[in-house]
Amino acid sequence: MYNPNKFKYEPLKRIDTPEGRRYATPDGNKLPSVTTILDATKSEESKKALMEWRKRVGPQKAQEITTEAAGRGTRMHKWLEDYIKTGEIGTPGSNPYSIQSHQMAQSIIAQGLSKCNEYWGTEVPVYFPSVYAGTTDLCGVHDNAEAIMDHKQTNKPKKREWIDDYFVQLAAYANAHNEVHGTKIRKGVIFMCSAANEYQEFIVEGTDFDKYTDMWFKKCEQFYMKFL
User: Fold this and answer.
1) Which residues form the domain of 153?
2) Tens of each residue's pLDDT in the chain, 228 residues
3) Into how many domains does the chain fold?
4) What is the pTM assigned to this prediction?
5) Is residue 27 part of a domain?
6) CA–CA separation, 133 and 125 (whole Å)
7) Dmax of the chain from CA atoms?
8) DSSP three-state, residue 9
């Protein structure tokens, strides 16, 4: 059930700066986005791995892969947003990328969103006053528990140990939602589908959620110590 009146989500104005994305929030601040903080606090090991990958496949091929994945993800998100709001997914055109993203969205609907009891909003703006802001794919109730949910596309299936940053991101959005809207969300869900239409689902909750919350606020501290 789509219940967009459950909470009042204030729109946040996005501001792109040389230092990364910022959001203008209702309290008058211009706060760094969650993704900006995550990018700025990446470990040297992660940066090195990305550089080695780009070197291995070549800069042109790396850009092609990145652009194709981004386009596929954008299309998939649009199909899912339409479904969440209307209960219908629509039909793709003849474009093969549109057909592919439509199939991926269908897999997420059938195997992931089918477990959701209620949707509060999609592409939801959230912020933690004076600290950070961002936009999460979906807020609502998953398997009878309040949750922050993200849709992810991937070129190939992922192992859980590879996606710590996704879990940190979910914790960031959940804590922001709790702070402003008085919820007690301690669950994050990632609905993931590969280009070959292989579905995966990852859930973080309980003590794991607390662990990623601690990791997130440490990253916030690192960010502000580095840039202020």
Assistant:
1) 13-53+116-227
2) 889 889 999 999 999 887 788 999 998 999 999 999 999 998 666 655 556 656 676 767 657 656 666 677 788 889 999 999 999 988 887 788 888 899 999 999 999 999 999 999 999 999 999 999 999 999 999 999 999 999 999 989 999 999 999 999 999 999 999 999 999 999 999 999 998 999 999 999 999 999 999 999 999 999 998 876
3) 1
4) 0.90
5) yes
6) 8
7) 50
8) coil
